Amino acid sequence: MNGDLVKFIFLSLFRRGLRSVLTVLGISIGIAAVVALIALSSGMQEGIKGEFESLGSDKLIIRATGSAFGPPGTAVVVPLTTSNKESIDDLIGVKLSLGRLIRTVNIEDDESLETAFVVTMPDTTDEFELVKEAMQIEIGTGRWANKGSHEVVFGSGSAEDMFENEVFVGDTVFINKDEFEVSGIIESTGNPEKDDSLMMSEKSMRDLFDLDDELDIIIAQSVSEDDLPAVEARIEEVLRDDRGVKEGQEDFSVESPQALLETLSSILLVVQGVLVGIASIALVVGSVGIMNTMFTSVVERRREIGILRSFGVRRHTVRLLFLIESGVLGLAGGLVGLIIGMSAAKLLEIVLAPIVGSALLQVHFSYTLLIVLLILSTVVGAVSGYFPAREASNITPLEALRS
Amino acid sequence: MAAKSIVYDLTDIRRNFELGEMTIKVLQGISLKIKSGEFVVITGESGSGKSTLMNLLGMLDVASSGVLEFDNVNVVGLSDDELSDIRGKKIGFIFQQFHLLGTLTALENVALPLMFQGVHEEKRWARAKKVLTKVGLGDRMHHKPNELSGGQQQRVAIARALVNDPEVILADEPTGNLDSKTSSEVMGIIRQLHKEGSTIILITHDEHLVKFGSKHIVLKDGRVV
């Protein structure tokens, strides 16, 4: 009997054709919106987490503060120095530290003049290796720039896009009017921030800008992850001494990527909250749509309920019939919604990722969410079919027949 | 089924409808008996309460007061499930508006009541085909109602009413939506059923149909005349 009932339900859904399809579509749009929005926002979170994780949880980033905005190095009040770095190197628990300079330069080829950031690679081997490891970069063609040479390394993105003509190894460019040879091009990382950068040796940068002992950023690697808080405290203490500032008035900051990640995560949570909010509205609109469709459909089918009741179908069976039917529509709507939402998010990733940066625009599907949404659409469907059907089956068969 | 057993025994049946403050007394104390195998024609002007009476006989509606015995059981006050079960097993309806399900074929419409009775699928199809052939629609079983003429649709409805092998067939203006030629075809089928021993109650305002019945009841203002 129950098997027959289900067969009968599927038969009538199938025979109603377009009507069923439209109901399913109505349900699926709300679900699709939720899936797509959440997949994109949690993908963004995963991407940012991944970036920070590649930096490693055993490192600390030291910066001179005072430059609240703009790239580091442009408006620092008291810059970090190489002697600051040496003090950090001497601390117990610090395995290695490295300093980098980041500057804006004018760069020109035969045809045009552009502005770009150049970052330095350390001149000692172990520090150099640490940067490569932390940034996860490898040279693609050519080789790294030699210490103190007039050589520059292009990222894969900047090599392609900076000038009209693509830059190749061996080409000549002018950086702040000085002639530089392109010694190598870095393999593409998929992260535009890295791919669009330019790199040269630290000494080359000091010569170019006539810098003495300034550093824009110091990265310190702890001997062990567990020691990180203690190392952080020691660095702060030694830098206060070095730079002659009191506790609470530091003109520098020591941050672990972990702490940065936490700050960023809380911002992301807000972003995700907003997206989920929008998605929820879509879902509510979708749910009201389901209810409306189901309600109209059941009211229109009161006569059908009357017919069934006239040949002896009990109230309970009528309700069961509509409960299953609307549940099936809800489930189908949910499934179609998942497919639409997942495809739309994926499509957006494929189309937009190359433009805005693949690391941040990626989709991430949570299976729990997908299952919850399926259950939700089934329940909303079932409930919104059940209640009008209950009402229609509560009246006498005669009244139902007459509607 | 004993030949002359009493199927319906109504005593002082009343049916009132509340319309705001007003109470409309549609049936004002109907008492009558209907025996097994009879062909009862109930006539009356519109508003006489004949449709209301038929709805009570078919247990689609509930009397306000009185005793309505069906098979020696007073059905006034039975639960909805109990009434549903009686309808499903013992009563077959033929409506003026046919009341077929538009999504189903003739065969599926006819077999549907059996499904809800829990009859096995193969048996359902066999039985439905048999009654459809009996009403002369053996060749149009797989057509949907909108592909059938009015007369054909009503014959599908008759087949559906017969499929459960009911004790009573209730026909409410079965020819009301049909032209005279198809009307006489449909009446021919109903007369044939009577000849085969079915108890038939026919409601109509068409005096020409009275001659087919074995018993004639006239209603006027909610009373038997």
Give the helices and strands, then pairings.
The complex is a heterodimer of chains A (about 400) and B (about 220).
Chain A: H1 2-15, H2 18-55, E1 59-64, E2 80-81, H3 82-90, E3 94-100, E4 102-108, E5 113-121, H4 125-135, E6 139-142, E7 151-154, H5 156-161, E8 172-175, E9 178-186, H6 192-195, E10 198-201, H7 202-209, E11 214-215, E12 217-222, H8 228-243, E13 252-255, H9 257-300, H10 302-310, H11 315-356, H12 367-394, H13 397-402
Parallel strand pairs in A: 5-10, 7-9
Antiparallel strand pairs in A: 1-12, 1-13, 2-11, 3-12, 4-5, 4-8, 6-9, 7-10, 8-9
Chain B: E1 6-19, E2 22-35, E3 39-44, H1 50-57, E4 65-70, E5 73-74, H2 80-90, E6 91-94, H3 106-116, H4 121-134, H5 150-162, E7 168-172, H6 180-195, E8 199-204, E9 215-220, E10 223-224
Parallel strand pairs in B: 3-8, 3-9, 6-7, 7-8
Antiparallel strand pairs in B: 1-2, 1-4, 4-5, 9-10
Helix pairs in contact in B: 3-4, 3-5, 4-5, 5-6
Provide a descriptive summary of the structure in words.
The complex is a heterodimer of chains A (403) and B (225). Chain A is an alpha+beta fold. Chain A has helices spanning 2-15, 18-55, 82-90, 125-135, 156-161, 192-195, 202-209, 228-243, 257-300, 302-310, 315-356, 367-394, 397-402, and strands at 59-64, 80-81, 94-100, 102-108, 113-121, 139-142, 151-154, 172-175, 178-186, 198-201, 214-215, 217-222, 252-255. Chain A folds into two domains: 2-52 and 262-402, no CATH class; 57-256, no CATH class. Chain A has 13 helices and 13 strands. The longest helix of chain A is centred in the C-terminal third of the chain and has 44 residues, at 257-300. The mean pLDDT of chain A is 84. Chain B has one domain (38-63, 80-224): P-loop containing nucleotide triphosphate hydrolases (Rossmann fold, 3-Layer(aba) Sandwich). Chain B contains six helices and ten strands. Chain B has helices spanning 50-57, 80-90, 106-116, 121-134, 150-162, 180-195, and strands at residues 6-19, 22-35, 39-44, 65-70, 73-74, 91-94, 168-172, 199-204, 215-220, 223-224. A six-stranded mixed β-sheet of chain B has the order 6-7-8-3-9-10, sandwiched between helices. In chain B, strands 2-1-4-5 form a four-stranded antiparallel β-sheet, with helices on one face. In chain B, strand 4 (65-70) and strand 5 (73-74) form a beta hairpin. In chain B, helix 4 packs across helix 5 (150-162). The chains are: A alpha+beta (403), B alpha/beta (225). Chain A binds chain B through residues 1, 4-5, 8, 11-12, 15-16, 303-304, 306-317, 396-398, 401, and chain B through 55, 58, 60-62, 80-81, 84-89, 92-93, 95, 99-101, 103-104, 108, 112-113, 115-118, 121, 160, 164.
